[in-house]
């Protein structure tokens, strides 16, 4: 075997070794790489019970209840199969609205109510002018941000 | 074919052709940059969800794509350099690294600026953002390694091994939004499906992608030329060139 072939083998060996190591590591950390849990996973008891974690889902239409005298707000998150009630006190991001996907960080109470200390809005990969979105809605098409994208 | 590769691999030939090429590529860059910015900031309509804030996409997406592309160029040059010991690939890799690091930095900063109004936070430790940050560290590590050795051949070899090990991060960055639940949304354009962005918004974006790519090539050629002069300072053609 010539030196060049040896070097080709060496490069291939580096790439193969790294890929295999990468696959093992990523499989091992699979759960930790999940940025959030879905309501179904929480109902099934997969989410941590003692420490804080993140929940992701769609805000159920007509479920948002705001207190009139402070910043307390409660809403229901769904992944279209299961629902979790979330309570939060603070300022919500601009994109927060009913039908929108959001991610909330906080703890689960024993009564399966999620107490959030941070709420982040998740937007999707669709970009279009407002007129197109209106036309789509008028034509009876589902508006992308209401699409049932959860759980992922 | 082999003759052509051999010729292209010779620093002098690369130097001469890059002098002739870089002007034209710079012109393409300037035109597509002006066209892309005008199209993106003026002609394209506001987004139905994000309003005008979405326009930062015209910097963020091209920068993020280039951060991956430049890394792949360095990794490919590294592999070629390890196997065939071609000097010009060392020069291309070394000259590319700071440009790629800048693109990565730009992608992270524009992403943070975009994230605050839309998500409600500058930064989260989700898989996409974290793997992109690791990419920045890989670039910085590579750059540091290059200046750690006084012998450029050893530096190139050590750097090539580092980037080849780090290349595993590239598919992780690309597929992170599909493999795991992330705050970052999924791909808009780089998928098998048709792009989920309106044509009036897509065309300026593609122009900006062209602008970033040609900007990279232009700066790469300029940086590579000065690297070549440094490498070849002893050879007769460099002396002739400098005296002229």
Provide the fold topology.
The complex is a heterodimer of chains A (152) and B (244).
Chain A: H1 3-28, H2 30-33, H3 39-43, E1 53-59, E2 65-66, E3 72-78, E4 83-89, E5 101-108, E6 113-122, H4 130-138
Parallel strand pairs in A: 4-6
Antiparallel strand pairs in A: 1-3, 1-5, 2-3, 3-4, 5-6
Chain B: H1 2-9, H2 11-43, H3 57-84, H4 87-119, H5 127-148, H6 152-166, H7 169-179, H8 199-231, H9 236-243
Helix pairs in contact in B: 2-8, 3-4, 3-6, 3-8, 4-5, 4-8, 5-6, 5-7
How much helix is in the residues of chain A?
A: 25-40%
* Annotated CATH topology of the largest domain in chain A: OB fold (Dihydrolipoamide Acetyltransferase, E2P)
Q: What structural class results from the helix and strand content of chain A?
A: alpha+beta
Largest sheet of chain B: none
Overall structural class of chain B, as computed from helix and strand content, comes to: mainly alpha
Mean pLDDT of chain A: 83
- Basic shape of chain A: extended
Radius of gyration of chain A: 22 Å
Low-confidence stretches of chain B: none
Number of strands of chain A: 6
Q: What's the number of structural domains of chain A?
A: 2
Beta-strand portion of chain B reads under 5%
The SSE order of chain A reads HHHEEEEEEH
pLDDT < 50 runs, ≥5 residues of chain A: 144-152
Order of helices and strands of chain B: HHHHHHHHH
Judging by the overall fold, what is the CATH architecture of the largest domain in chain A? Beta Barrel
CATH class of the largest domain in chain A: Mainly Beta
CATH class of chain B: Mainly Alpha
Strand content of chain A: 25-35%
